[in-house]
Write a structure and sequence with these properties.
There is one protein chain. The protein is an alpha/beta fold. The chain has 4 domains: about 80 residues, no CATH class; about 280 residues, Rossmann fold; about 240 residues, Rossmann fold, CATH 3.40.50.12470; about 140 residues, Multifunctional 2-oxoglutarate metabolism enzyme, C-terminal domain (Rossmann fold). The protein has 31 helices and 26 strands. An 8-stranded mixed sheet has the order 3-9-10-8-7-4-6-5. Strands 14-11-15-16-18-17-22 form a 7-stranded mixed sheet, sandwiched between helices. Strand 25 and strand 26 form a beta hairpin. The radius of gyration is 34 Å and the shape is elongated. Its EC number is 1.2.4.2.
Length: about 950
């Protein structure tokens, strides 16, 4: 044993404070030598060679434990030693200075490659601020919790903390309240002195990757002069960062990395990391893309996604790059949702197998609210993905014309991440070795604590916002510095030449070799594995049909419905329901037996139950999804004594699909995008998002515009997401009335969406089942009711659920004689019941009312069939309760073209055009509603002028 101890003591590695650390390293070395950094690996190897005959592993472990215990004993002894007041004050000052570096050393760290701004003066880092003078520099002090020898001269302490906290890595972690996390980071930073341990091969590979990053951009710049590519130049270290992240993740046993990023550097990442053939990129620049423009609109090359498989020391890693529009950070929650679906498919509850990686721009990370919303999701039960590695490409400027002082109010662009106590590691992009060190630490932190972590890659942008831009017009001082500054590859090549690791000729040969490869169009990334068949691959092949109107029976036998109803209505022994819920439960029992007509909430839950029983997972989220905003769903109930929640739909069968009802945080944009991402990665689940009120979807309009409505035609992505949007004018003011039906209809084209307005519980039941039973996946937009949830006429019989399908058009239901009909009123939604009750109250027998339940894709055949009996009827009316410039009218009136051929014109009846969706006073609402119902049923029309004449 003495030889081993002498080996460590002579190297200066073993002292009391380091014993526990060395013990931990030794245990890791025994399990996997590759898990220990090179220097320690060599030490342990030498130790075993020199002391092979002296001791076995067990005594070595025991000795390390003994040393650690001795260290703790000495520390306790020292803590009880009495110091003179002056000495105690000096000792306290030293510890305060150390903490000053931990808290604020990052502010003076060497992070900016181009030295854009002067280094600030930080008082906390000045020994004089702590009453430490020049004569104290050689005084030996206790180092406290510093990962260092127990006692050191002050001069050496300062040198050490400056190296750790003020070099090319600036660390922010002292805001974290969890002591274990904080100590873990301190151990990594201070134990390794914030210096990576790379062997010669690693450093040469780093130069190879930087050569690829620079060579790719230079080649494109010369070959496609002036064309937009949003180059990575100045931020080249992203390529070795991602390479290290992928390889290390694979070594740690992770199987998938799902990456989201905006357009900056995307082409380089696709080529140099994902292995997209350069020739494919060139073809996109030159317009030689194999695509049927009649089937797909396509997108610009720097928005496109990609998937590939890369070999790593731990096995194959599947890489996915998400498709992303120009709305920058909106990809964040989409990726998180996709990752959650992939983790669910792998039964990866902790996030050890699927890793989300998000690459941000500095100004976008600071400025776009969806970043905060996504961070807020990160530790919630139903949205957590085990932690995300965030990489900020910090060009120190937003748009070319931005003044960096105007892009945020915070010190750093990454400060928003502190709200979830994520550590932030700033690193100089011109020091790729420090970039590797930070990457390793960030990934290991994420995997250890399953929390988000931020890498702030501080760099610059050599060109403007795009290649046609001239940045010096608005940023003259910045670009004078940039144009005098050598490239990251040149900086690192000079460093390796100086260290004698490569010759200048070898470095130049790397440049020539890369250019030769890329000119030949061959893959220049790590070897890409092709033709692999993954057990967890997302297969959308079965549901790419565009036959939206295919007939499919969505009924379920009554015996099965009653069986499922019994299961849904069971509660645990002793579970005390709220009296109102107890009454509702009794009503549902009667509905299940056919003694009472079904209401909306019960029919909806039955739809979920039937799908779950068939093995289909159901994921429902929204701000009040479990109970339902309007007290109708009650998919989740609460014990009135204990407060414990119980979800009956999770207990309907032994082999059922998973059900989750999520009462989400008050976010629309991030939550809807998350559910969209989940739905795109899970074709066999019913994924639903419910707005608290339909118009709250306004807060997620970018998700609707850029993903839900257009991703299919831009990128060929399938998605079966369901949006439930409560809609209906009921005197609740402008903000609680309209789900903006007209906006969704404006987005409809090429069978991209399904927009439906069901009016009965049975219709809702069949509509939800159709979404899964049918081999067809397109987003479904449902205008759901509010007052109709308990309307006496909006009910269905149990046998309506046992057969049939969703009716896109519902013909007249009363015994109205077509031969005696003088007017046909078409409508959708809640206004139907107002019309029906008024017609019945007035005893009118000459007006037929037809409901259109699916507005897009428009059911022309069913529409014609419903209208056919009334061929002789002259007056055709479209009635809606929304203002004329809103609702369905402007988007549906051209559907009446067959009527126009006969010289007929459809008449509009409804509210006049309005800037607001509804009036703010109930009395005004009631007056307007009564008037439009009266006009629709009995108003006079002048066919020659195609105008209605209000009744006298």
């Amino acid at each position: 044993m003495s030889a081993i101890l002498e080996l460590f003591r002579s190297s200066g590695a073993l002292y009391g404070g380091n014993a526990a650390f060395i013990e931990d390293l030794y245990e890791r070395y025994l399990k996997d030598p590759e898990s220990v950094d090179l220097a320690w690996r060599e030490r342990f190897h030498i130790m075993h060679q020199e002391a092979a005959n002296e001791v076995a592993h067990g005594p070595v472990r025991e000795n390390f434990l003994r040393l650690a215990q001795e260290s703790r004993t000495r520390a306790r002894t020292r803590s009880t030693e009495r110091l003179e007041p002056a000495a105690a004050e000096k000792q306290a000052a030293v510890l305060s200075l150390i903490n000053g570096y931990r808290y604020r050393g990052h502010q003076v760290a060497n992070l900016d490659p181009i030295k854009l701004r002067d280094t600030p003066k930080i008082a906390d880092l000045d020994p004089a601020f702590h009453n430490l003078a020049a004569e104290d520099m050689d005084q030996v002090f206790h180092t406290g919790s510093l990962y260092a020898p127990d006692r050191m001269p002050l001069r050496d302490i300062i040198t050490m903390v400056e190296q750790i906290y003020c070099g090319t890595v600036g660390s922010e972690y002292m805001h974290i309240t969890d002591t274990q996390e904080k100590r873990w980071i301190q151990k990594r930073l201070e134990g390794y002195r914030a210096i990576p341990e790379l062997d010669t091969a690693d450093r040469r590979w780093l130069l190879t990757l930087l050569t690829a990053a620079e060579g790719f951009e230079k080649y494109l710049h010369q070959r496609y002069v002036g064309q937009k590519r949003f180059s990575l130049e100045g931020s080249d270290a992203l390529i070795p960062l991602l390479d290290e992240l992928i390889q290390r993740a694979g070594r740690k046993g992770q199987k998938e990395l799902v990456i989201g990023m905006a357009h900056r550097g995307r082409l380089s990442v696709l080529t140099n990391i994902f292995g997209k053939p350069p020739q494919d990129i060139f073809d996109e620049f030159e317009g030689r893309v194999q695509m049927d423009w009649r089937q797909m609109a396509g997108d610009v090359k720097y928005h496109m996604g990609f998937a590939t498989d890369i070999d790593t020391p731990g096995g194959i890693v599947h890489l996915v790059l998400g498709f992303n529009p120009s709305h920058l950070e909106i990809i964040n929650p989409v990726i998180e949702g996709s990752v959650r679906a992939r983790q669910r498919r792998r039964h990866d509850r902790s996030g050890d197998q699927v890793l989300p990686v998000l690459i941000h721009g500095d100004a976008a990370f600071a400025g776009q609210g969806v970043v905060m919303e996504t961070l807020q999701l990160s530790q919630t039960r139903s949205y957590a993905t085990g932690g995300t590695v965030h990489i900020v490409i910090n060009n120190q400027i937003g748009f070319t014309t931005s003044n960096p002082l105007d892009t945020r109010s915070t010190l750093y662009c990454t400060d928003v991440a502190k709200m979830v106590q994520a550590p932030v590691f700033h690193v100089n992009g011109d020091d790729p070795e420090s970039v590797i060190f930070v990457t390793r630490m960030a990934l290991d932190f994420r995997n250890q604590f399953h929390k988000d972590v931020i890498i702030d890659l501080v760099c610059y942008r050599r060109l403007g916002h795009n290649e046609a831009d001239e940045p010096a017009v608005t940023q003259p001082m910045m670009y004078k510095k940039i144009r005098r500054h050598p490239t990251p590859r040149a900086v690192y090549a000079d460093r390796l030449v100086s260290d004698g690791l490569v010759s200048k000729d070898e470095a130049d040969a790397m440049v020539a070799d890369y250019r030769d490869s890329i000119e030949q169009g061959v893959v220049v990334a790590r070897p890409v594995l092709c033709g692999l068949d993954h057990a967890y691959r997302v297969d959308w092949g079965f549901c790419r049909s565009t036959a939206w109107d295919q007939s499919v029976d969505t009924g379920v036998p009554v015996e099965k419905l009653r069986e499922l109803s019994d299961a849904m209505l069971r509660v645990p022994d002793g579970f005390e329901l709220h009296p109102r819920v107890e009454k509702l439960w009794e009503e549902r029992r009667k509905m299940a037996q056919g003694d009472q007509l079904l209401n909306w909430g019960f029919a909806e839950n039955l739809a979920y139950a039937t799908l779950l029983d068939a093995g289909t997972p159901v994921r429902l989220s929204g701000q009040d999804a479990g109970r339902g905003t309007f007290f109708h769903r009650h998919a989740k109930i609460h014990d009135q004594v204990t407060g414990n929640a119980y979800t009956p739909l999770q207990h309907i069968g032994e082999h059922q699909g998973a059900f989750i009802a999520i009462d989400s945080l008050l976010s629309e944009e991030a939550v809807l995008a998350y559910e969209y991402g989940f739905a795109t990665a899970e074709p066999n689940a019913l994924t639903l998002w419910e707005a608290q009120f339909g118009d709250f979807a306004n807060g997620a309009q970018v998700v609707i515009d850029q993903f839900i409505s257009s991703a299919g035609t831009k990128w060929g992505l399938c998605c079966g997401l369901v949006m439930l949007l409560p809609h209906g004018l009921e005197g609740q003011g402008a903000e609680h009335s309209s789900a903006r039906l007209e906006r969704f209809l404006q987005l409809c084209a090429e069978h991209n969406l399904q927009v439906c307005v069901p009016t009965t519980p049975a219709q809702m039941y069949h509509l939800l089942r159709r979404q899964i039973v049918r081999d067809y996946r397109k987003p479904l937009i449902v205008m759901t009711p509010k007052s109709l949830l308990r309307h006496r006429l909006a009910v269905s019989a149990l046998d309506e659920l046992t057969s049939g399908h969703f009716q896109t058009v519902i013909p007249e239901i009363d015994p109205i004689d077509p031969a005696q009909t003088e007017r046909v009123v078409f409508c959708c939604g809640k206004v139907y019941f107002d019309l029906l009750e008024a017609r019945r109250a007035r005893g009118l027998t000459n007006v037929a009312i037809i409901r259109i339940e699916q507005l897009y894709p428009f059911p022309k055949d069913y529409f014609d069939r419903a209208l056919e009996p009334y061929a002789a009827t002259e007056e055709i009316v479209w009635c809606q309760e929304e203002p004329q410039n809103q609702g369905a009218w402007d988007q549906i009136k051209h559907r009446f073209h067959n009527l126009m051929q006969d010289g007929k014109r459809p008449y509009y009846v409804g509210r006049p055009s309005s800037a607001a969706p509804a009036v703010g006073h109930r009395a005004a609402h009631v007056e307007q509603q009564e008037r439009l119902i009266d006009e629709a049923l009995t108003g006079h029309f002048n066919p020659s002028m195609n105008k209605r004449i209000p009744p006298q």
